[in-house]
Task: inverse folding
């Protein structure tokens, strides 16, 4: 067979199976083919077999493409292999997996987030074809949730109508109403004669299994290397001999089918039942915790297979997690297949390690394991090959210990992301939070293999021996060493320091000698016994946050005091940066009085995020570029200094490097020292200047968060760029900006002090909820650690009642537990009465007011905020609109608590809303290292680039490739895979492929539910997008159900007062009929009005949609009122002459005409039925789909403030050029007039005129063309003064304007992934607007070289982005295009080569000035216009009217 990686069919037979066909890939190994076969229905549950080709067995590690004789259609034979004790138990486990029927609540029982999409799409009336994502209907016996029952007749349920305060949880998830699953056997368990005695073990008996069939027969089965057979043992007699009539079957199910006809029938039924989609069946790599559990807390069916003992079977040997992870990292990466195999192996190993860490944490905290550390402050545990500990509390008590564990994981992630440094290893690491305890889980480090230090014969024998350094080759305590392996490690550390922007520095060791470091002072480099280099203790990898460092406060006090010794020391230092002398190494003026920073924090491990450092470096780079340009301008001009070999440029770069704090004075380079502001670290005296520079940079970075990043984040929220809905999305948005969550108090203050506070109330609400929940969680951690296991349910439910009910007080301690102890007769009740579950951490009885005081105290210490919290939770709920249900959800997700699925009445002040029986479980929460999927991410970025350029065909191919790569690595069970599928659905929808978009979006919703959570905000948005594609395909009923589910989830997660609710309500108003549609449209208008104001595109579009619906109801008077508001909004935003305003006016005119006709018909014939709605006012199905796409952001508007600013700068530049050129024209005309008056003969005058024409008239012509807006840019590249004398080349030839691109050569104006040639029908205004934008860019940039959004930017040699005028130097020489045609270029409409000197008189100058005034007026008008994208809405005559107003997501 050729070495081809494409798939091809082969035939499989043997092992008692009928021949079947399957697809294999050439890059598969034989063992991959075996694994694929075990998943086939024809083979399952068979195991322990190999493959043979033409009678020859195949090596499991050989690639199929390298097998000679294997070609399409070849026959592979299954060969049954003997069992081992381990493989025999594994085979029984596969049989149990087949017999255990999977139901919709299995995920809830295991604490995993379920997928509800299958139930939603397969309920009665869900879709016109009743299909599912796989085209098959799932036969599940589920009760129909409320959300589905109300939509059957086309009307939504009451609790989903706008303004409803009811938040039922029972409608969120399906709940079982009947017994699930089929019954195969009455009992299957280990035999009482198990394990086999010694003499039977020597004869091959592995174990004995007892089977009770549905017919009532009892059999004892023996497992041996050849398979399974029935022995003669009974309950009273042990006889391992086989029964004479019993066959020996290699597969256990074959033997059961022979023994029980009922089992055979049930098994055949199970194999023919509809299978779930692979995306729903495959286990997720990491568990997504679900805070709601099953509705029924009692079992409906006994576990028939629980007594088989396989689930509790411990592995014979704990895996070496470190060796498995490092072996996966060392896999080759030369080809794509090798990289995919490596990424998949890494993901599988890390997933298994995370699962083992979670199980180990449960085992340890529940008290089923003993410590392995002998003495010591903190105990250590070893379970399943994972070493677990709580860490050291030296960094600030419990808070510092938790921070150290989190930062250690962050440091491991930072070094793991350095894919190029494959030789530098880190241990597998994770942190687990369970029952208030945080454990750090790590793989075991390999044995050290470092050289022992040789004894020095000349050393003093009485001197103390050097500390042992076996294996430790780098670190503060490593000591002086010199070896080839150490030099190799230092090279790796230097490379990693460069990648992470770490500065090489030196610190003073314990004995006073200097220790060079590339990392933090705590890090250690080891040479393991496996020959690999390991880096440990990465807590302080990132630099310190100077806003919360006690050392900063001490330094500030020292600087304020101004001691004489420090002054003398500073006077002696000659290398101190100039900015330090000016106070640049201190905080900004009035920084402490304005912000209260720096201040102390509950722990001393506050570090900056990597995202913040990247943003800060970019900010510094911008300052550097600006400063270089300014210095070069001051020293002779940018163009002169930028010439090669000019020393002034080097001088400017050196000065700018020193001013911005670059560690190099030759190039811009920012690096940081992670040991600055760390207690107990001393630097050499010679490095004081570098240390002060690092202190200055850290202060600037800390102030950058307050002064730049937080205000920018608030602006992004105000503009709709960031719209957090819950804690997860808020945390993601803040971290993306480099803002730690400890700045939540400053974020709240910034929002509270903003003039747009009312428009940011949803952000303030989420931030306050995050403060409350995080503070409550810290109190809960201390509270629950002192609770015994038998009181956990009562303690957790009581804590939740105290948190959510302001005046809640517990029952007398011990009464209820004593009642239960009498009934149970156990000591659990007595223990509960002795140690009440509701004791506060301080020992007092925990009540609602007491708990809220603890929450307020923690919020003050952590976030410096208490004013917004009030005296109880009711204050937060009433003043900020925060929901108690949202608080309950966030608290459960952050603590791992799972509650029973039922409706909770949280507003009841007299009764406990949550009881002990409502607390079902507490699950461990694991934070782990994220393994990369590099090739998939690279393909996804390429697809996004194509979308930005409007190349949808190429983008679709890249997205399909990305989805394939994600499937190869993680079976598409990845958050970015959800985003990829959603983007693919959008692209295919824009291409007109609705069916493909529907299929991709269905999968995206299902994956999002399982990977992110069934109620994650991203899942909510995916449901809304799915509704659009379903509506476009005609599945209107299912689209309505998806939108109603999305709205129900938003109400549960956040509440109704959120901008995204307006989007959902607008979509529901378009899809629903009757009065409900009007209610949703009115709700959307109300929300948009409150969040965006009356003069906004969101509000104007809502006004138009409501007017459209009122027209369909015949209420033309109200419709005119709303459309007038929309027209007024467009007029205020864009002006009367804008297309949006005109289209709205046209729609209003159509409504008015229809209203007149209706009124006239009523007067003429009062008894006649009211005429039908005019055709121009009734939206078509295509129009509704377009409006849905615009509401949900599938089609985005192209409104851009940058374009408005671009136009303004353009016209200002032209105005300045024209003014300067008129001044030059005046001077030249006066000179020409003087010369003509001085000549005595016409010949002399003519000669003078001929001599002056190139420099005078032609110069005036060039000036006139510049004033008229031609693409002649005379401004210097550095933004300095114009030099009109360079308008003409030395030869006196004219500079023609750039040729305007033709329609064939015009660049594509791609706006949000929608190019011109792919614009939807009915969008002529949008295409015209995009053409105008491209023409404006081409005019300003001097030609048609316009591409995407980068048309008005160029990249200078220094890397700085400059404006269009700055990109042209040397008098605008780049303006001339090859092959440009001659155009009229004179002042008075005369060509430049015209020989009529009369046009260069004063009258021509007056006309020139009049034209200048016209240019000024045109520039003013252009500054007021904004080019916006347009959306298609119905109205007016013909196919529709184009009106603006699409909200931007």
Result:
């Amino acid at each position: 067979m050729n070495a081809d990686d494409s798939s091809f069919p082969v035939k499989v037979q043997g092992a008692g199976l009928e021949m079947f066909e399957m697809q294999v890939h050439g890059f598969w190994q034989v063992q991959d083919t075996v694994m694929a076969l075990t998943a086939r229905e024809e083979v399952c549950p068979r195991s322990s077999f190999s493959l043979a080709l033409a009678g020859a067995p195949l090596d499991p590690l050989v690639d199929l493409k390298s097998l000679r004789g294997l070609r399409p259609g070849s026959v592979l034979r299954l060969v049954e292999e003997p069992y081992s004790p381990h493989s025999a138990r594994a085979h029984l486990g596969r049989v149990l997996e087949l017999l255990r029927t999977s139901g919709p609540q299995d995920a809830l029982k295991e604490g995993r987030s379920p997928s509800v999409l299958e139930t939603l799409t397969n309920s009665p009336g869900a879709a016109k074809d009743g299909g599912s994502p796989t085209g098959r209907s799932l036969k599940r016996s589920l009760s129909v949730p409320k959300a589905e029952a109300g939509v059957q007749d086309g009307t939504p349920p009451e609790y989903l109508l706008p303004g409803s305060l009811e938040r039922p949880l029972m409608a969120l998830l399906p709940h079982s109403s009947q017994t699930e699953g089929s019954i195969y056997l009455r009992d299957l368990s280990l035999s009482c004669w198990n394990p086999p005695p010694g003499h039977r073990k020597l004869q091959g008996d592995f174990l004995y299994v007892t089977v009770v069939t549905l017919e009532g027969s009892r059999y004892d089965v023996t497992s041996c290397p050849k398979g399974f057979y029935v022995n003669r043992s009974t309950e009273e007699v042990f006889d391992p001999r086989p029964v004479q009539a019993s066959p020996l079957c290699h597969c256990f199910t074959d033997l059961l089918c022979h023994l029980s006809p009922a089992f055979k029938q049930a098994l055949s039924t199970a194999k023919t039942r509809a299978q779930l989609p692979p995306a729903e069946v495959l286990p997720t790599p990491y568990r997504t915790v679900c805070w709601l559990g099953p509705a029924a807390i009692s079992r409906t069916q006994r576990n028939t297979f629980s007594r088989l003992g396989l689930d509790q079977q411990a592995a014979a040997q704990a895996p070496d997690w470190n060796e498995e992870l490092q072996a996966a990292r060392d896999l080759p990466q030369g080809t794509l297949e090798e990289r995919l195999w490596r990424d998949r192996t890494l993901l599988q190993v890390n997933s298994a390690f995370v699962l083992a860490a979670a199980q180990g944490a449960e085992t340890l905290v529940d008290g089923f394991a003993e410590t392995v550390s002998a003495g010591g402050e903190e105990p250590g545990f070893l379970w399943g090959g994972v070493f677990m500990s709580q860490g050291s509390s030296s960094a600030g008590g419990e808070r510092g210990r938790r921070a150290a564990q989190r930062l250690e994981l962050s440091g491991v992630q930072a070094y793991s992301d350095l894919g190029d440094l494959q030789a530098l290893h880190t241990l597998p690491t994770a942190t687990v939070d369970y029952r208030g305890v945080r454990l750090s889980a790590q793989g075991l480090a390999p044995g050290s293999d470092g050289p022992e230090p040789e004894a020095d014969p000349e050393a003093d024998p009485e001197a103390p021996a050097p500390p042992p350094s076996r294996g430790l080759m780098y670190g503060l305590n490593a000591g002086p060493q010199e070896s080839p392996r150490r030099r190799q490690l230092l090279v790796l550390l230097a490379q990693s320091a460069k990648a992470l922007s770490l500065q090489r520095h030196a610190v003073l060791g314990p004995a006073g000698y200097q220790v060079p470091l590339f990392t933090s002072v705590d890090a250690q480099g080891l040479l393991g016994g496996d020959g690999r280099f390991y880096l440990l203790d990465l807590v302080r990898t990132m630099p310190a946050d100077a806003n919360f460092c006690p050392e900063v406060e001490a330094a500030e006090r020292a600087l304020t005091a101004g001691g004489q010794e420090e002054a003398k020391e500073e006077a002696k230092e000659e290398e101190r940066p100039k900015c330090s002398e000016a106070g640049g190494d201190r905080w900004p003026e009035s920084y402490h009085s304005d912000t209260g920073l720096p201040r102390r924090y509950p722990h001393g491990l506050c570090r900056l995020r990597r995202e913040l450092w990247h943003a800060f470096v970019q900010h510094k780079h911008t300052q550097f570029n600006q400063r270089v340009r300014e210095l070069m301008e001051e020293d002779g001009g940018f163009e002169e200094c930028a010439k090669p070999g000019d020393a002034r440029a080097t001088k400017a770069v050196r000065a700018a490097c020193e001013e911005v704090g670059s560690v190099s004075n030759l190039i811009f380079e920012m690096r940081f020292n992670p040991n600055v502001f760390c207690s107990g670290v001393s630097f050499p005296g010679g490095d004081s200047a570098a240390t002060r520079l690092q202190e200055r940079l850290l202060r600037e970075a800390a102030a950058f968060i307050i002064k730049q990043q937080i205000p920018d984040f608030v602006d992004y929220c105000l503009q709709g760029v960031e719209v957090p809905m819950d804690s997860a999305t808020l945390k993601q948005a803040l971290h993306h900006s480099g803002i730690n969550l400890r700045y939540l108090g400053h974020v709240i203050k910034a929002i509270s002090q903003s003039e747009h506070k009312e428009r940011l109330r949803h952000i303030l609400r989420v931030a306050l909820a995050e403060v409350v929940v995080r503070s409550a969680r810290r109190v809960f951690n201390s509270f629950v650690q002192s609770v015994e296991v038998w009181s956990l349910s009562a303690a957790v439910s009581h804590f939740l009642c105290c948190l959510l009910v302001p005046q809640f007080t517990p029952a007398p301690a011990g009464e209820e537990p004593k009642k239960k102890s009498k009934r149970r007769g156990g000591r659990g009740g007595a223990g509960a009465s002795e140690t009440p579950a509701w004791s506060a951490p301080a020992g007092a009885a925990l009540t609602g007011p007491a708990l809220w005081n603890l929450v307020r105290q923690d919020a003050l210490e952590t976030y410096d905020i208490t004013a917004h919290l009030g005296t109880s939770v009711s204050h937060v709920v009433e003043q900020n609109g925060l929901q108690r249900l949202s608080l309950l959800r966030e608290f459960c997700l952050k603590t791992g608590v799972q509650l029973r699925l039922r409706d909770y009445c949280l507003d009841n002040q007299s009764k406990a809303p949550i009881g002990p029986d409502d607390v079902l479980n507490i699950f461990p929460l694991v934070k782990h290292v994220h393994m990369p999927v590099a090739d998939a991410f690279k393909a996804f970025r390429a697809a996004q680039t194509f979308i930005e350029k409007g190349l949808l065909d190429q983008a679709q191919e890249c997205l399909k490739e990305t989805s394939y790569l994600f499937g190869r690595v993680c079976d598409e069970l990845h958050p970015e895979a959800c985003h990829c599928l959603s983007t693919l659905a959008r692209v295919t929808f824009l291409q007109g492929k609705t069916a493909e978009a529907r299929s991709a979006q269905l999968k995206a919703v299902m994956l999002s539910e399982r990977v992110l959570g069934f109620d994650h905000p991203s899942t909510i948005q995916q449901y809304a997008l799915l509704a659009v594609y379903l509506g476009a395909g005609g599945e209107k009923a299912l689209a309505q159900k998806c939108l109603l589910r999305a709205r129900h989830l938003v109400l549960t997660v956040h509440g109704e007062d959120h901008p995204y609710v307006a989007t959902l309500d607008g979509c529901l108003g378009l899809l629903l009929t009757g009065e409900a549609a009007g209610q949703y449209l009115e709700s959307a208008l109300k929300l948009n009005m409150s969040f965006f104001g009356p003069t906004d595109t969101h509000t104007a579009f809502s006004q138009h949609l409501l007017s459209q619906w009122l027209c369909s109801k015949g209420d033309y008077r109200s419709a005119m009122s709303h459309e007038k508001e929309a027209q007024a909004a467009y007029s205020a935003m864009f002006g009367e002459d804008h297309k949006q305003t005109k289209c709205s006016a046209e729609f209003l005119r159509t409504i008015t005409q229809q209203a007149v006709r209706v009124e006239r018909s009523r007067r003429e014939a009062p008894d006649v039925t009211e005429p039908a709605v005019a055709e121009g006012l009734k939206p078509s199905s295509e129009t509704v789909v377009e409006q849905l796409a615009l509401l949900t952001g599938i089609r985005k508007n192209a409104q851009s403030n940058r374009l408005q600013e671009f136009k303004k700068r353009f016209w200002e530049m032209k105005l300045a050029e024209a003014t300067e050129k008129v001044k030059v024209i005046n001077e030249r005309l006066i000179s020409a007039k003087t010369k003509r008056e001085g000549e005595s003969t016409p010949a002399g005058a003519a000669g003078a005129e001929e001599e002056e024409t190139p420099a005078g008239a032609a110069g005036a012509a060039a000036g006139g063309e510049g004033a008229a807006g031609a693409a002649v840019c005379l401004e210097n590249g550095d933004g300095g003064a114009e030099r009109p004398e360079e308008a003409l080349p030395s030869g006196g030839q004219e500079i023609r304007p750039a040729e305007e691109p033709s329609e064939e050569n015009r660049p594509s104006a791609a706006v949000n992934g929608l190019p011109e040639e792919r614009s939807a029908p009915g969008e002529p205004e949008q295409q015209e607007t995009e053409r105008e934008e491209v023409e404006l860019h081409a005019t300003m940039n001097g030609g048609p070289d316009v591409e995407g959004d980068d048309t008005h930017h160029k990249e200078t040699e220094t890397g700085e982005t400059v404006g269009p005028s700055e990109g042209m130097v040397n008098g605008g020489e780049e303006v001339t295009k090859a092959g440009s045609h001659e155009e009229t270029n004179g002042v008075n409409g005369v060509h430049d080569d015209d020989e009529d000197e009369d046009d260069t008189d004063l009258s021509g100058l007056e006309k020139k000035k009049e034209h200048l005034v016209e240019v000024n007026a045109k520039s003013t008008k252009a500054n007021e216009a904004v080019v916006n994208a347009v959306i298609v809405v119905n109205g007016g005559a013909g196919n529709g009217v184009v009106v603006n107003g699409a909200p931007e997501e």
Remarks:
- The chain has a mean pLDDT of 78.
